[in-house]
């Protein structure tokens, strides 16, 4: 068990989605170097941006259609065939 308190954030501005605590003991010098490196270091890892800038014209339907897998397209095809069979009979 580590002794002392842990402070997350400090001068951080933004939303933090996830924090992981390492089980390794790090020297203060290592932490200082990694903090000085910023996003390029191993101390802070920036995630992928979830918002799409400049693509404000994209509708929800186009985003869903772009992210469909092969299984999703097969299900849509089968449901379309079933709908057409229902209308014919």
UniProtKB/TrEMBL annotation:
Membrane-traversing stretches: 63-85
Domain of life: Bacteria
The UniProt record lists the keyword Membrane: yes
Keywords recorded for this protein, A-Z: Membrane, Transmembrane, Transmembrane helix
Name by which UniProt lists this protein: Biopolymer transport protein ExbB
Protein species of origin: Nitrosospira multiformis
UniProt lineage: Bacteria, Pseudomonadati, Pseudomonadota, Betaproteobacteria, Nitrosomonadales
